[in-house]
Every structure is written in structure tokens, then in C-alpha cells.
Amino acid sequence: MRKISNAGIKLIKSFEGCKLTAYKPVTTEQYWTIGWGHYGADVKQGMTITQAQADAMLLSDLAKYEAYVNNPSYVPVADKLTQNQFDALTSFCYNTGPANLKKLCNDRTISQIAASITKYNKAGGKVLNGLVRRRQAELDLFNTPDTKEAEDKVTAIVNGNQIEGAILVDGTVLIPLRAAGDNIPGSKISWDQKTKTATLVTP
């Protein structure tokens, strides 16, 4: 079963924050919230927890929401999601619940899901700025290519010949030594951002 990555966890934490005393972010909420956005009937008014308990709750909750996103009954295109898309939907489900996840993804393509994410910005019938920002952040992550996918699209040219195995890592094009050969000392890279093409320029 696919798991959420650090990018998804970071997004969730950035919006949930961590509070060790039970609270209601919106007065119309049925239950109370505590820790990293843990919400449910088990949270009571006046309840307090430790940081370790909050972190444990987060891990337990993430497993539950990951299962929903992995479930084709909730996300029919689950097997086609990139890691970033999976992370974004896990954050979405963590915040809005499995019923809204199913509603968002039912009978929709990946591009249609993306087009609908930001519509879920209301609580108690009112648009909330916090939810507007969160949905946009989830959409941005959803639309961000995974690192490996970005690497696969890089083209590298050495002495006029396109070579295999070039990758883009943190903005740096890496070319296999066997391809560069004796051209390494003093060589420079010409980078075309539009076509994602790196050309080795020999001195």
C-alpha cells in the first residue's frame, strides 16, 4: 500500500499546526480537535495530551487516510496517481474526510480532480480563507511532477549526440561519466529551460 511522503506530511503539518489542548477551529464542528488536527468523538472538551501522543496520533491517522486514497472505491484512479498527487489527496482527505474524497474523485479523471480540489473551501456553508489557502497548496502539490518524472524528461547532448542516463537533480544536470568521456575538464553546460535540454560545451 502506498504511503504519504515527507512532502505531504509537511503540507498537513503546516496547515494543521499542533495543539496539545482540545479546540474547535469552527464552532459548528460536531467534535473537538487536538494534536496535529486529530478530530473525532474520542476528543473531549478540556482534553490535553503530550507532544509524543500528538505525534503518535498523526501517524495513526495518516495510515487511515492513506487507506482511503489507496482504495479504488474512493479514488478510482488510485493506481494512476503520482506520489505528489497521492500526498495531496491524503491531505485533502485528512482535512475534509473520506466522504468528500469520494465525492471529489468519483467518475473523474485526474485532470478533472485537479480542477475540482479548490471548490472544497467551505465550513458551515461559509468560505474560509484558511481552507482556500489549503486547497490551493494541495492543488499546487497535486500538479507538481514527481522528481523522477522530471528527471526522465531531461535531454542531454554531448558532441552533437543525445545520450542516455542524464538526470536533473535539484536544478543540476548530471551526465554519466561514460558519456562525457574526455570532455569533462573545463567543459560547461548550456541549459535550455523550455526544452529541458542540456548541451555539453567543450573548451
The domain tally reads: 2
What is the terminal separation in angstroms?
Answer: 50 Å
What is the CATH architecture assignment of the largest domain?
A: Orthogonal Bundle
Radius of gyration: 22 Å
- Mean pLDDT across the residues is 83
State the helicity in percent bands.
Answer: 40-55%
Major β-sheet strand ordering? 7-6-11-10
What's the tally of helices?
8
Question: Which features characterize this protein?
Answer:
single chain; 203 residues; alpha+beta; Lysozyme; 2 domains; 4-stranded mixed beta sheet; 3-stranded antiparallel beta sheet; 8 helices; 11 strands; elongated
Account of the protein in words:
The chain has helices at 6-16, 51-70, 83-96, 98-105, 110-116, 129-142, 147-152, 177-180, and strands at residues 19-23, 32-35, 38-40, 122-123, 126-127, 155-158, 161-163, 167-169, 172-174, 188-192, 197-201. It is built from eight helices and eleven strands. It is elongated, with a radius of gyration of 22 Å. The protein is α+β, with helices and mostly antiparallel strands. Residues 149-153 have low confidence and may be disordered. The longest helix is centred in the first third of the chain and has 20 residues, at 51-70. A hairpin with a 2-residue loop joins strand 8 (167-169) and strand 9. It has two domains: 6-144, Orthogonal Bundle (Lysozyme), CATH 1.10.530; 148-201, no CATH class. Helix content is 41%, strand content 19%. It has a four-stranded mixed beta sheet with strand order 7-6-11-10, with no helix packed on it. The chain has a three-stranded antiparallel beta sheet with strand order 1-2-3. The chain has a two-stranded antiparallel sheet with strand order 4-5.
